Amino acid sequence: MLKKRIKQGVMLLLTTALLISTVPAFAAESTTNRGAGVAIGRMYGSMRTVIADLLGMSESDLIAARQSGQSMVDIAKEKGIEKEQLIDKVVSTRKDTLQQLVADGKITQEQANYCLQNLETRIESNMERTTTGNIWKGNRGAKGFGRGGYGLRGNSSQL
Q1: Alpha helices in the chain (DSSP H)
Q2: Per-residue DSSP letters for 88-120?
Q3: What is the pTM of this model?
Q4: Where are the domains of the chain?
Q5: Each residue's pLDDT tens digit, 107-150
Q6: 8 A C-beta contact, residue 84 and residue 124
Q7: How far is residue 50's CA from residue 140's CA, in Å, rounded to a whole number?
Q8: How far apart are CA 4 and CA 154, in angstroms?
Q9: How far apart are CA 144 and CA 36, in angstroms?
Q10: What is each CA distance from 67 to 23, 62, 64, 130, in whole angstroms?
């Protein structure tokens, strides 16, 4: 009986040691592309000012138009700005911000590359949305720049 308990204890210790040594390795591997560069919209400001300037309107008027159910693309079209021009401006501004963050040592080039992977597609999707507020409400796993965090999260005052 004592030998059996000793074997069980040794197996438990070995299993625990194995888990302790492998879990951090998997965690480190899965978060390589995450970190400071992933929450750019929340950490370094929304695109509200850039878009309002491009459209020649105040931020409060832009917010009011968004809250009335219009997409950024709809608002831009009313102001004579094509969808591609709007998206190009936002993409260009975000790329400049990412490069400055790399230059300042706040994020790595690897993080910037991760953010750039689908940047234009995500921005286009956000510019076409007609809803305001948190687009991932209830989905705790979908946070950060990689999932559309271009300053369009949070309450409706953020567009």
Answers
A1: 2-30, 40-43, 48-55, 59-67, 72-78, 83-103, 109-116, 119-128
A2: HHHHHHHHHHHHHHHHTTSS-HHHHHHHHTTHH
A3: 0.60
A4: 34-158
A5: 999 999 998 888 888 899 989 998 887 655 544 444 444 444 44
A6: no
A7: 28
A8: 57
A9: 9
A10: 45, 9, 5, 8
